[in-house]
Amino acid sequence: MAFLTVDQLTHAYFSTDSATMALQDISLEVQEGEFVSFLGPSGCGKTTLLSLIAGLFQPVIGTISIRNEPVKQAYDQIGYMFQQDYLLPWKTIEANILLGLKIQGNLNDMSKAMTFELLDHMNLGDTNKKYPHELSGGMRQRIALVRTLATNPQLLLLDEPFSALDHQTKLKLENLVFTTLKEHQKTALLVTHDIGEAIAMSDRVIVFSANPGRIKSEYTIPEHLAKMEPFDVRNHEDFKDIFQMIWEELNELEDED
Amino acid sequence: MSLKTKIDLAYEEFKQRERKTKKQVFITQLFMLFTFLGLWEIASNKTLIDPLLFSSPSKILNLFYVKIMDGSLITHSVVTFGETIASFVIATILGTVVAAVLWWTPFVSKVSDPYLVVLNAMPKVALGPILIVALGPGYLSIIAMGVLISVIITTLVVYSAFHETNDNYIKVIQTFGGNKKQVFNEVVFPSAIPTIISTLKVNVGLSWVGIIVGEFLVSKQGLGYLIIYGFQVFNFTLVLLSLLVIAVMATIMYTGVGMLENLLRKRQS
């Protein structure tokens, strides 16, 4: 049985003037512990798909289930990382990372201690009493990762979490997220428009076409690359071939439009 | 000379210049005040301006002393100050609560939109006579006047602050499975606090308008009453004295709110 099942999903956005089709007939399965990337041009509904999986709103047609349970009730198994950290500026780092536990009513000495351990693990143990604006972008995104992991979700939804960072920080954070997720054996979905990032981090890359968003093709990353840390994958000789293949595919998509 | 001492010296010089400017500004301000008071006194003494109408600083000071000694000025000031604080606190809390209700129930907010626009556009002091009839000629209608004048604008401003909360912060709460109450408590309300504090600043001014007008209409006590009384018996020294006391008290309240704002801003910026 697959961990996550998306079955014939179609979604449209309604306004008084028009109905815009965002996703059309998406079906996919993700196995437990797998890292899957959604790659595609902007407007292909990648973020919509992620929001639907997160249960933020309901699809017009189709179902999404995690371990055969519809996602509306599965929020405690899902962790979401955004394009920016969105740490609440009026709360200290401590209050920010404990936010999820507090909302889900699971705040106790043990969950607190585990969260602080995670923070220590990111070498940010001394930022506890600080406010987000006192920290750099990379530190804040790492804290956002701690906040996401604090509720111990099984499925991580990563919505271009590295796109607002400078290149060096981004590469470092890719490694950190990759190793952290592997260590805790999490399943992850990454939305990105960066081909290199998708290849470097994933076991599988799903390419989307736009208007409306559909699954165009799927690439399974060879096992020896999938196991490597993202930075090493980027430097591996096989990386270029896969990059080239997906690059041409995406160019074709653009020409079709 | 090392680079460090050079920078230190330049920094000292910079600080000294800043201090000097600050001092000059302050001296000029004092000079303007005393020149104004002096000219006023002289003009009034030489009847260049009508002393009956414009009084003079010495007469005002004299009256101030008399009124302090017989205790009446303190009583009037305390009454007005109390009414203002009450109306300003009630208006801010009431406005925020109504705004929260509007945010909570979009249907109510859509329905009430045109009514709020009309209420906001209407000059609230015109409702004064109705208030007096409804609530009786006492503190209650005066405070109601002060509340009425600032509550609508507070509601509108705070509601729009609630409404404009960054969606992504709300999404953070929702991805954790947070319900509407948690979204409001964790994100919507705290992110609107700076706006609420700045409406406090506006409300200080508006409450004073409401209270003084209210006192004009009904009261037997308070600074608004003193102004009307002074006007009726043609004692403009009393009118000017009351005005001065109002100016001082309003400034104190405004500064207090400003300090509160700074405190909060430092905590969350």
Write the layout of secondary structure elements.
The complex is a heterodimer of chains A (257) and B (269).
Chain A: E1 4-14, E2 19-30, E3 35-39, H1 46-53, E4 61-66, E5 69-70, E6 78-81, H2 93-97, H3 99-103, H4 109-121, H5 137-150, E7 155-159, H6 167-183, E8 187-192, H7 195-201, E9 204-209, E10 214-220, H8 223-227, H9 230-235, H10 237-256
Parallel strand pairs in A: 3-8, 3-9, 6-7, 7-8
Antiparallel strand pairs in A: 1-2, 1-4, 4-5, 9-10
Helix pairs in contact in A: 4-5, 7-10
Chain B: H1 3-45, H2 51-54, H3 57-69, H4 72-104, H5 106-121, H6 128-135, H7 139-163, H8 167-175, H9 180-217, H10 223-232, H11 236-268
Helix pairs in contact in B: 3-11, 4-5, 4-7, 4-9, 4-10, 6-7, 7-9, 8-9, 9-10, 9-11, 10-11
> Number of DSSP strands of chain B?
0
The fold-level CATH name of the largest domain in chain B is MetI-like fold
Average pLDDT reading of chain B? 90
Distance between the termini of chain B: 40 Å
Mean pLDDT of chain A: 89
CATH architecture of the largest domain in chain B: Orthogonal Bundle
Quaternary assembly: heterodimer
- What spatial order of strands do you see in the largest sheet of chain A? 6-7-8-3-9-10
Gyration radius of chain A, rounded: 18 Å
SSE arrangement of chain A, N to C:
EEEHEEEHHHHEHEHEEHHH
Count up the domains of chain B: 2
Please state the overall shape of chain A, judged from the principal axes of the Cα atoms.
globular
CATH topology of chain A: Rossmann fold
Greatest interface: A-B, 22 and 20 residues
| Shape field of chain B | flat
- How much helical structure, as a percent, in the residues of chain A? 25-40%
Q: Given the helix and strand composition of chain A, which structural class is it?
A: alpha/beta
Alpha carbon gap, first and last residue of chain A: 37 Å
